[in-house]
Amino acid sequence: MRYLRPIPRRLLPDDMLVFLPAEGGGRGESRLVRHVRFERTEGVVSDAHRSADAGHGTVFVDAVNSEGALEVPAGARVLIGAGPSMLVRACRRCCVVRGQVHHWELEVG
Q1: CATH domain 9-108 topology
Q2: What pLDDT tens digit does each residue of the chain (109 aa) get?
Q3: All structural domains of the chain with their residue ranges
Q4: pTM of this structure
Q5: What is the secondary structure of the chain as a DSSP string?
């Protein structure tokens, strides 16, 4: 496959605020990334006060259609919608030919 179209904006309904980690620990600068997609993953937890943990999922950031797109480092925190901020556990770069980035997939939780 030589060319892969960008993810259409209609499939990127969410906005994300990224809190980049500071060099000495804590939070550094924040950046707004518009037009991302958050797909929530729910699972059962063994806590007596909760029946499911809804704070995990995958964020898709398109290299073309996500305004302010960047490769978010693991350890950063992201805020999507009105929910609590989530830790970026991993960032996977998805490339097309010659290493050109198509999109990033962030594992958050």
Answers
A1: Thrombin, subunit H (2.40.10)
A2: 457 899 999 999 999 999 999 888 777 899 999 999 999 987 776 766 665 656 789 999 999 999 999 999 999 999 998 888 999 999 999 998 888 999 999 999 9
A3: 9-108
A4: 0.85
A5: ----PPPPGGG--EEEEEEEEPTTSSEEEEEEEEEEEEEEEEEE---TT-SEEEEEEEEEEETTTSBT---PPTT-EEEETTS--EEEEEEEEEE-GGG-EEEEEEEE-
